[in-house]
Write a sequence for this structure.
């Protein structure tokens, strides 16, 4: 009998002795080891958990929409990092250790409440409400650290990884907690330091990750689902823009072009973004896939805000500089990140084509000050449609595995 089977047998005897139902108080287990080779999909709890991030993305987009200045873009990116990192942290925990007992469910519900508080405090995080944002983030991390401490106790094979994450995330959360004791803007420095420690923790834990693997089919599905959430915000802002312009013909046309852009972005992501990078034996390949999705989220959210402003500003002359940079810059981030993932996956093909599209979008951001909203959207749409057509011709397929299959060694 293996040690894992012995542990489960002992747990069963203890539950029977205490008359505790298995679904009330289970124990974490390393699912990726016990269920190796089995196809796994997102659980209902994971899908429910994702819903709270609909609010978070909406608040981030609303914040950016109200301040399309250079400072506004910087603040938008700064606030997006902890929100996205909160989702990534729980996603990788669930990938390895998700159980269906009451304790785990209640912990996830508590995390959802903390993330909702984090989302609701986004608007004032840099305008007098930083204490609420910091406190909410600390709560988000405390729940996750508690889950890792529980997993470390019950899953001997994962103790090294859990210990690293407890220390790294604990130091990061402590810096956020200490930030409550200092005034702004010094407080923001502690936030940056805390995030730097947390983001670096998986990067410095590749060997522990290799010994405690993640599910290379489940993780891409989870990242795809989060991308759907952000694309949903794009669709929502298209509809919001139309409703706020009283359904004028010009706004309807601009909205239609904007929706075609969103559809093209969906097509590019789900047909041509390589998931094989997550299975690569080189530690940095998986990291490019994971952290590249932060740029994808930033880019898509920025595009959503740009489309909304394009609809609202149609008929008023050229599109404003802020909205133009949101549109073009968002597409640049999206294309750069998907191209980096493509390179990390060691897939063939000419990267000069997407880089040429990046250069063109950048040129439109710099020199497109005289273009009306529908014209600028139309030109960007042509770029995206060209990407879709070229991808189809070149045979892009996100389901093709990397050239060398092996255990994953470095995502999170």
């Amino acid at each position: 009998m293996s040690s894992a089977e012995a542990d489960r047998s002992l747990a069963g005897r203890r539950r029977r002795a205490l008359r505790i139902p298995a679904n009330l108080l289970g124990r974490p287990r390393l699912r990726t080891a016990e269920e190796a080779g089995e196809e796994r999909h997102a659980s209902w709890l994971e899908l429910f958990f994702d819903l709270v991030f609909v609010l978070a993305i909406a608040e981030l987009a609303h914040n950016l929409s109200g301040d399309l200045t250079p400072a506004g873009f910087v603040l938008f990116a700064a606030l997006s990092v902890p929100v996205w990192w909160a989702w990534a942290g729980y996603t990788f925990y669930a990938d390895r250790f998700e159980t269906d007992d009451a304790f785990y469910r209640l912990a996830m519900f508590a995390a959802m409440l903390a993330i909702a508080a984090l989302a609701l405090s986004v608007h004032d995080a840099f305008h007098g409400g930083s204490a609420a944002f910091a406190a909410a983030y600390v709560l988000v991390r405390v729940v996750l650290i508690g889950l890792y401490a529980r997993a470390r106790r019950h899953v001997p094979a994962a103790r090294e990884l859990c210990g690293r994450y407890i220390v790294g995330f604990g130091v990061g959360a402590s810096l956020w907690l200490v930030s409550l004791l200092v005034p702004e803007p010094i407080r923001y420095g502690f936030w940056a330091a805390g995030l730097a420690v947390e983001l670096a923790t998986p990067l410095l834990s590749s060997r522990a990750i290799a010994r405690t693997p993640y599910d290379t089919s489940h993780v891409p599905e989870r990242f795809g689902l989060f991308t759907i959430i952000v694309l949903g915000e794009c669709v929502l802002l298209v509809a919001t823009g139309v409703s706020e312009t009283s359904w004028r013909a010009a706004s309807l046309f601009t909205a239609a072009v904007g929706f075609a852009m969103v559809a093209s972005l969906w097509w590019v992501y789900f047909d041509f973004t390589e998931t094989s990078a997550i299975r690569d034996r080189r530690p940095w390949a998986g990291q490019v896939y994971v952290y590249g999705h932060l740029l994808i989220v930033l880019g898509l959210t920025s595009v959503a805000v740009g489309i909304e402003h394009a609809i609202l500003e149609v008929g008023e002359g050229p599109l404003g500089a802020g909205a133009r940079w949101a549109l073009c810059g968002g597409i640049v981030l999206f294309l750069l990140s998907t191209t980096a993932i493509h390179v990390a996956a060691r897939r063939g093909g000419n990267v000069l084509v997407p880089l040429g599209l990046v250069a063109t979008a950048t040129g439109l951001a710099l020199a497109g000050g005289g273009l009306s909203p529908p014209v600028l959207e139309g030109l960007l749409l042509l770029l995206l449609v060209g990407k879709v057509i070229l991808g189809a011709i070149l045979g892009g397929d996100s389901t093709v595995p990397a050239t060398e299959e092996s255990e994953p060694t470095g995502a999170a």
In short: Residues 14-20, 397-406 have pLDDT under 50 and may be disordered. The longest helix spans residues 283-313. The radius of gyration is 22 Å. The CA atoms of residues 299 and 333 lie 5 Å apart.
